[in-house]
Please model this.
Amino acid sequence: MVAEEPRWEPHRILADGVLSLDAEDLRRLLPFAKDRIQIDRVLSLQPGEMAIAQKAVSGGDVSTKGEPSTFVFPSTHAMSALEQLSLVVLLSREDPPSSTPEVWKASQGSPYPQLVEIETLEVDSEMVVPGILHLRAHLVHEVENGGSLFEGGVSVGGVDFIRARWVMGSIVE
Model:
């Protein structure tokens, strides 16, 4: 009998259960094509609890229709990145990473949790200059129907530009 390999490689472990994930780890964990992943790296991850990530946003990330030389990174893209970060929190607690709770498999759609509700959303401004986004997502508690309530936000240069509370779960058809 072969001993089980550890789930996370030793160089990913920062301290007591806290992990750091790079782009390759995210490609293995998230159920998206490489070009659809909106997070560059996870700086700190406590599986099933919280994560802090970063994304470098350049002028080529989002083009503005009719004004290709104008830079803007809409808050909707940042909220999508928060959705992906909360998915990292949820999937990282599953063992192995590819498994998902039965409640997520019950729906006809995706077997993975999705953003199903935004409880609160405060947007201070759009990101109009390329830079580094810092994203944070914290699992507050589980909610009815197998959903998970998160809170967090996105900051640029230490200044919040989005603060939100949202629910990840299954879309029941």
The chain has a mean pLDDT of 79. The CA atoms of residues 21 and 85 lie 11 Å apart. The two ends are 44 Å apart (CA to CA).
